[in-house]
Amino acid sequence: MNRRDAIKNTALGLGAVSTLSSCNTTQTAATTSLGKLNNNINHSVCRWCYSSIPLEAFCEAAQEIGIKSIELTTPDEWEILKKHNLTCAIGTHKKASLTKGFNNPKYHEELEMTYLNLIDQAVAHGMQTIIVFSGNRTSAINDEQGIENCATGLDKVIKYAEKKNINVVMELLNSKIDHKGYQCDKTPWGAALVDKIGSPNFKLLYDIYHMQIMEGDIIATIRKYKDYIGHYHTGGVPGRNEINLNQELNYPAIMRAIVETGYGGYVAQEFIPTYEDKLAALREGIRICDV
What we know:
CATH class: Alpha Beta
Order of helices and strands: HHEHEHHEHEHEHHEHEH
CATH topology: TIM Barrel
Helix content: 40-55%
Number of helices: 11
Low-confidence stretches: 10-32
Number of strands: 7
Strand order of the largest sheet: 2-1-7-6-5-4-3
Distance between the termini: 30 Å
Structural class: alpha/beta
Number of domains: 1
Radius of gyration: 18 Å
Shape: globular
């Protein structure tokens, strides 16, 4: 199961996964009402992790939980979100590719057309931010060349985004386990690209799960690169499952660090739930992050 397949086929089921007995205890607790949220974090959730739940039903559940956004959704889904007073914090399109990205000039023309159109659709639906990807390294595209190629390929896209008041984020992903060869796999590389492009409308999507695998030192990195980060994703390490005590990251501390930087954007849950009740897992994740 990966994000690309789930976005292309939202009817795909996640399947049943066994959980530890300690997870079962946590799951029971997670079914209780969340109560009033602290509103220090704007909560979002990635659609692909809950693709087995029909979108209308998922919107109703998200609203009940206190989630404001269902992201990594596509323009054809945005009217349904708006119907339920939800937004899409990060918009994407069905042809999005992690491997065929802006670091390779042979894809620039096609990507430019796709993303200029996506920006227009975001404006039409009142959405604010879209996601792009670096693509994979090749023998001809080392890290320095990748930065140059991405800056060149994104030039017209970012300038058009500035004109239309749309933000663009490039996601940091791990190339160790999930996305072999992906080039934007370290925060310093992403920050160098942000500096190269030099636009307030272009920042990084800092995926905590992925960067724990690649770098660790999460809180210090968030503090150091706060001005380069435009969005956050969660996920338990190892396994990309629930963010409770059965994984190694201290999410309440991480969320407090994010709040302390003055960040006012969204934090999206992007873990693959293993509980039989997937919405219970989501409620638990929101509770953990609501510092």
